[in-house]
Design brief:
The protein has 410 residues and is an alpha+beta fold. The chain is built from 7 helices and 22 strands. It folds into 5 domains: 12-50, no CATH class; 53-135, Roll (Thiol Ester Dehydrase, Chain A); 151-158 and 177-235, no CATH class; 238-296, Alpha-Beta Complex (Type Iii Antifreeze Protein Isoform Hplc 12), CATH 3.90.1210; 298-410, SH3 type barrels. Strands 9, 10, 11, 12 and 13 form a 5-stranded antiparallel beta sheet that branches. α1 (13-24) crosses α2. The longest helix has 20 residues, at 31-50. It is rod-shaped, with a radius of gyration of 56 Å. The relative contact order is 0.06.
Length: 410
């Protein structure tokens, strides 16, 4: 069996081969022949040693990582696979900045190998004497664009949920719902502002974080349901004007808007208390309407001729008087007869109508019939029916004067 000595003993190979050849073959071999064969074996051993590990340097290299490795600069072969892998991962230098370049000479590569304790007697370097290294610009990672939900659609949903809570809370309470950012991403793409929605859940009496179920009908006819969460706040709600109004204007429903009260008990909380009223002063927009800034629309104005009616038991008396005040329904005004100066106090009962309030209300009876009209403009209506059981009415004696205020006895 042929034993190949260690690589460090290659120089002794010819002498060892000559000794072996003489012992195994014959001792009479020509010494020149032995030397000739030994020389050829020595040259072959040197050739095998020189080609064990070859490192061929590139003229240029492009790196993408922050460190330059030997595998980026050269091709390594004629060595075991594990040795090639370790040499390829050997760090030579830090990489240049993106878009810039640097030169790494062979001497620097040798120096890095020496610093790491790697013997280079078994290496054969070839190729370029230096490598031009350039760091490529890394394209920014392509991230999936986040799904953007229209702010208009989010505000639309918040308004609808706030209106839903306001209806559950009742008039005078203002519920405001603000959707959280996580729920905004849950809104389906099929939902639009024109989609009819059905809202369920929530508690109008409990401000704070709440969750609602939204059901809508998509354009394809498919019914979809999703959930949204957010924070609900509740405050007293009062009425204000959309636009400023001067004194003497009648307030309509279209002039009003709801707003949050800044303090307890401020302003009006019922539409019926404001609609149809008249402003008593200039009122600014988006400011809570105060109680003293409006009044009911007068049915009687100063200087109007008013039909004043007084009921005395079974007798109703009516005469015309001139109003000295403005008065709305149910308010008391002062009047004077058209042919006199004495003042009469009556309550407004309708448009240019007033009635004198008596302490004794007449009994419920059949419709009355006019019986007699006096020459001085006073109409008397006499009830032709007896009073109800347990009630009595005292008829006044004589004719009622047109210039005298009516008075009744209990």
């Amino acid at each position: 069996m042929l034993l190949i000595p260690a690589r460090s003993d290659l120089l002794q190979l010819p002498r060892l081969f000559s000794r072996w050849l003489r012992k195994t073959c014959c001792s009479t071999l020509d010494s020149d022949l032995v030397l000739w064969v030994s020389a050829w074996m020595l040259l072959g051993a040197f050739a095998w040693s020189a080609g064990a590990t070859t490192i061929r340097l590139h003229s240029d290299a492009v790196v993408s990582e922050p460190l330059v490795r030997l595998g980026d600069l050269a091709i390594i072969d004629e060595a075991p696979a594990d040795v090639i892998q370790r040499l390829q991962q050997l760090t030579v230098a830090p990489a240049p900045s993106e878009g810039r370049q640097m030169r790494i000479p062979l001497d620097r590569i040798r120096r890095e190998l020496t610093l790491r304790g790697i013997t280079q007697t078994d290496f054969r370097f070839s190729g370029a004497s230096e490598v031009l290294v350039m760091r490529q610009r890394n394209a920014p990672p392509v991230e999936e664009a986040p799904r953007v939900v229209s702010d208009i659609l989010v505000k639309h949903l918040e308004t609808m949920i706030s209106h839903y809570l306001r209806e559950k809370a009742g008039t005078g309470k203002n519920a405001v719902f603000v959707m959280d950012s996580a729920s905004q991403n849950l809104i389906p793409d099929q939902l639009s502002q024109l989609s009819p929605v059905q809202i369920r859940g929530g508690d109008a009496a409990r401000p704070g974080f709440q969750t609602f179920s939204i059901t809508f009908l998509a354009e394809e006819g498919q019914q979809l349901t999703f959930a949204v969460s957010g924070t609900m706040t509740s405050r007293d709600q009062v009425l204000a004007l959309k636009q400023s109004l001067p004194r003497g204007q009648v307030i309509r429903e279209s002039d009003l808007v709801w707003m949050e009260a800044s303090k307890e008990g401020e302003g009006f909380t019922e539409l019926s208390d404001v609609i149809g009223t008249e402003t008593t002063r200039n009122i600014r927009a988006h400011v809570a309407i105060r109680l003293d800034e409006v009044r009911k629309l007068p049915l009687v104005r100063r200087g109007d001729i008013v039909a004043v009616t007084a009921r005395i038991g079974l007798v109703s008396v009516m005469r015309y008087c001139k109003s000295q005040d403005d008065g709305a329904l149910g308010q008391f005004i002062t009047l004077t007869p058209v042919d006199g100066t004495q003042r009469i106090t009556a309550r407004v009962a309708g448009y240019r109508e007033a009635e004198i309030v008596t302490e004794l209300e007449p009994p419920v009876s059949e419709p009355v019939k006019p019986q007699k009209q006096s020459d001085d403009g006073l109409t008397m209506i006499v009830q032709d029916q007896k009073p109800a059981t347990g009630q009595s009415a005292e008829k006044p004696n004589g004719r009622v004067s047109a210039n005298q205020p009516v008075s009744l006895k209990p």
